[in-house]
Design a protein that fits this description.
The complex is a heterodimer of chains A (113) and B (116). Chain A is an all-beta fold and 113 residues long. Chain A has no helices and eleven strands. In chain A, strands 2, 4, 5, 9, 10 and 11 form a six-stranded mixed beta sheet that branches. A five-stranded antiparallel beta sheet of chain A has the order 1-3-8-7-6, with no helix packed on it. The model of chain B has no long low-confidence stretch (mean pLDDT 91). The chains are: A mainly beta (113), B mainly beta (116).
Chain lengths: 113, 116
């Protein structure tokens, strides 16, 4: 089955700096790659996603890049703010196979004011 | 819309006890999922239901059973709880929305289960 690895497990950045989280996946059939943000005591919430026919996608301060050849994708957060502090998860799925998500282990991001 | 709701929020069980975690969604989604979240391991899929009347095993199904009661509700049952099942359990739902082609999974707030 699919295996998703995520790095780093923790990331501390100064407010205003950028944060980058990287994920690799093993199944070349995966074609949907969402990123979720989880705040303390809450369920994960989708912040951005990318499909395999796209190389990059941006939404304000958040961007995701996908390299299908190398089977890795990354989340970039620019101009970080204290409210960006949370745990971030990457995931991969094959949409034709029931959209079952395989998650990475998570990255705890701390933005220091 | 309440989205995805889960009950209970917290539960403590003794080894060998049974319980059912409830999940309901009001977004008219066809697909529903149960995940468990353990420290450092992300979320792992236990069972899913692609549509009403169907259920399938995920990555870690042992020790669990599920029931898709109707389109709205998907329950997870622990027949004989074990300490290894101490975890946070999340229910999610999703659908293909015609035209938007979104696959987003919407998550509930979770149930924190401790088995002693």
């Amino acid at each position: 089955g699919e295996n998703v690895e995520q790095h780093p497990s923790t990331l501390s950045v100064q407010e205003g700096d950028s944060a980058v989280i990287k994920c690799t996946y093993s199944d070349s059939a995966s074609n949907y790659f969402p990123w979720y943000k989880q705040e303390l005591g809450k369920g994960p919430q989708l912040i951005i996603d990318i499909r395999s026919n796209v190389g990059e996608k941006k939404d304000q301060r958040i961007a995701v890049t996908l390299n299908k050849t190398a089977k890795h994708f990354s989340l970039h957060i620019t101009e970080t703010q204290p409210e960006d502090s949370a745990v971030y998860f990457c995931a991969a799925s094959i949409k034709a196979a029931g959209n079952k998500l395989t998650f990475g282990g998570g990255t705890r991001v701390l933005v220091k004011p | 819309n309440a989205g995805v709701t889960q009950t209970p929020k917290f539960q403590v069980l003794k080894t060998g006890q049974s319980m059912t975690l409830q999940c309901a969604q009001d977004m008219n989604h066809n697909s529903m999922y149960w995940y468990r979240q353990d420290p450092g391991m992300g979320l792992r899929l236990i069972y899913y239901s692609a549509s009403e009347g169907t259920t399938d095993k995920g990555e870690v199904p042992n020790g669990y059973n599920v029931s898709r009661l109707n389109k709205r509700e998907f329950s997870l049952r622990l027949e004989s709880a074990a300490p290894s099942q101490t975890s946070v359990y999340f229910c999610a739902s999703s659908d293909l929305v015609s035209g938007l082609r979104t696959y987003e999974q919407y998550f509930g707030p979770g149930t924190r289960l401790t088995v002693t």
